[in-house]
Amino acid sequence: MVTGAPATMRERREELTPMLAQYVDVAEEYDDCVVLFRVGDFYKAFCEAADEVARVCELTRIEREDSTGTYTACGVPVDNAPKYLRRLLDADYRVAVADQVEDAEQASGLVDRAVTQVLTPGTVVEEELLDEGTNTYVACVAREAEGTETDDTDDYGVAYVDVSTGECAVTAGDAAAVDEELARVAPAELLVGPAVPDGVVDGADCMVTERDPDAFAPDAAREVLARYAAADRFAPAERVAAGALLRYAEYTQGDDGTLEYVRRVRRYDPRRSLRLDATALRGLELFENHADSGRTLFDTLDETRSALGRRRLRAWLRRPLVDRERIDARHDAVAAFAERTLVREDVRDALSAAYDLERLVGRISRGRATARDLRSLHDTLAAVPAVREALDGVDALAEVRAALDPLDDLRELIDEAVVADPPQELTEGGVIRAGYDAELDEIRTTAREGREWVANLEASERDRTGIDNLEVGYNQVHGYYIEVTNGQLEKVPDDYTRRQTLKNSERFYTPELKRREDEILGAEERADALEYELFVGLRDEVAAECDRIGALADAVARVDALAALATVAVERDYTRPEMGADGVHLERSRHPVVEETAAEFVPNDAALPRGTVALITGPNMSGKSTYMRQVALCVVLAQAGSFVPADAARLPVVDRVFTRVGASDDIAGGESTFMREMRELTDVLHDATPDSLVLLDEVGRGTATTDGRAIARAAVEFLHDESGATTLFATHYHGLTDLADEYEHVVNRHFAATERDGAVTFLHRIREGAASSSYGVEVAELAGVPESVVARAHDLVAADRDGDTGDDGGDSLVADDAQRTLDDLTTNGHAADATPPTPDAGEGGVADLLADLRDLHLAETTPLEALNTLHDLQRRAAEAAGEVPEEERR
């Protein structure tokens, strides 16, 4: 990656033209950036930098030659710059934009240029380069310099800021906390302090930026942070991280002072929200899904009407609550919207007119807001009274309603000052309303009267001179003129002065026309200058109200997110969860994403008292992973403030959700799938508490059966005896199911399937007890594995049944079902040659049969499932009565 001054230019700096020498000076000062240099209507790069820009932006390089030699150049059109800037940022380049800071017409010699902004992936503020409704963060991980004393037990500070909105927060923690917070924040760019050891941020999936170590010096960082907050409120590592980060943000924005719209630096404790590490975020597919559907939980919930609400909803999902009172309050608010359709729809309709207040405030504070930005602010403020009126009298929403300050004074000020549809460019004039400023009105009157006089001049001069084809016109070069064709020149009066000669005519002016011209042009120039001055003053006046606008933005975001959650609850039949239960209790729960994309979804119950370890067995594709995820997602949704996809829900407040679901590897990092699995398992076993929810899927499958089964069994025992976490543990190691007999809080659950004539039908229903088979070969056949392979697999299974597999199956050929021999010789857990159970026998008897029959949900059962279920019940009834099933009699 080429940055800084091109080497070929540096070497012959004294020989360059003044403009190229100026480019080299700028490039050397911003040596970590690609410099785009304003030349006319293009931003240009030269030599090696031109090669890079041309490659990334797919542009053509041009060979230039001057008195100093030949060099390559590449140009990005100014009018279309965002398109190419986006490509450079996506390729992890930093871009320094050097603009002309002097009027070319007034410059004597070389036009002065200076870098007006440094663009980086994490600090962009231009609307064209930002994703609507998504935060773009730059983060910083720092440590207090080595050798200093600190009374804080946490080693690292983690700070992040969204430069476009002004949101800024900081926390402290150990190396594991750093990894977790970076996963949650998902920054686009990361600064790393010099005292941070190698390896601490290796998992960061973003561009890492190196900064001058001096920026991380404790005193320097404290000085910067003090411009935004009381520095002593923060731990030493937090001060270093936040101060260095804010200094970098100031540098990229080209501002001499503070970023005024960064209203406060919030210190937070990750333990005050439901903790979701990178593995959990990925496993539960909250924000990323690489499957064909591409749907995530956030996509499913996003019924917001504004960018403010969209960002707030995303933040709630990233950091669900752990405070019972706050959770209940959020549920109360969602319920209030859900129960009042007209209120909800009135609010959502009003919020459709809301612009992104946070980013508007940022542009206003930086002095980059246009007249259209102020009108957007006005239009958003105009929508607030309708929202307040709709919420009037709704007790659960009284607090947020009170925070909806309509800022009537600011809205009226903007409306009085700025025309309804202003031009994009401030210098074009026509921005300020008539009546706002008396001096401006007077100047405009002068210009208008002058233009009216000119408009009438043509008719009066025709009458006075008798020249019927005389015309009055204007151009920017010669000003106002009277044009007379060559055939009428003898009629030109003496007071006409020649201004321009054309092929077929002459152009003249009169003393009065010249006076009026000077008057009109002078008035227009003064009007434009005064308009700009008035607008800047207005913008500064609005910027002074940043705190009030920011508070309103927060309230609008909350209202929008709450109304969106209520909309989802009503339209998709979610229920309000009862919080504070001693365990997870769900009736007919569904997976919120899968039910939206699947043609048919089978709901399932979950009854998991606190500390339960549920061993879940059953065939592949039967729904084990989906079931585990939907239980976890119901917990996450509930603590985020949402209702949940279930008929009824009683849920605990959990502190963390751990997942070890699905297979992944890190080949570049030298980690196999099994090693990655073991690292994730390590995190679970070290950190899970009795208040945690743990999902473990196929632990130990990546190694030899004996080793894997041993690891799985030991993990279950540890979770039961040591962690006490509520756990869903899916496995194909059927031998683990005997743990339910040995441990008080271990229970067996299985997903039912039926087999007839070699065809397997998945019922996707969870039931008590253990599965009798994983149907691995049958699933392989369904997947399209060649018939010869399937037939050979069946033969090997049969041979394995006849052989001695040793304790729990050993390392037999059928390694994915070590107890297949025993299971296939039994019916519902009873040996085929054993005495048939009595009608009131336990599992497999009439009592269980009747229980399963009672639990059937016929309204949600397809005809094929009904036939398969009926066949299964009929077979079990015959066995319970000691009869031979019908298919065996045949």
UniProtKB/TrEMBL annotation:
ATP binds at residues 618-625. InterPro entries: DNA_mismatch_repair_MutS, DNA_mismatch_repair_MutS-lik_N, DNA_mismatch_repair_MutS/MSH, DNA_mismatch_repair_MutS_C, DNA_mismatch_repair_MutS_clamp, DNA_mismatch_repair_MutS_core, DNA_mismatch_repair_MutS_N, DNA_mismatch_repair_MutS_sf. Residues 692-708 form the DNA mismatch repair proteins mutS family domain. PROSITE patterns: DNA_MISMATCH_REPAIR_2. GO terms for biological process: mismatch repair. Belongs to the DNA mismatch repair MutS family. It comes from the Archaea. Keywords: ATP-binding, DNA damage, DNA repair, DNA-binding, Nucleotide-binding. Transmembrane segments: none annotated. This protein is involved in the repair of mismatches in DNA. It is possible that it carries out the mismatch recognition step. This protein has a weak ATPase activity. GO terms for molecular function: ATP binding; damaged DNA binding. This is DNA mismatch repair protein MutS.
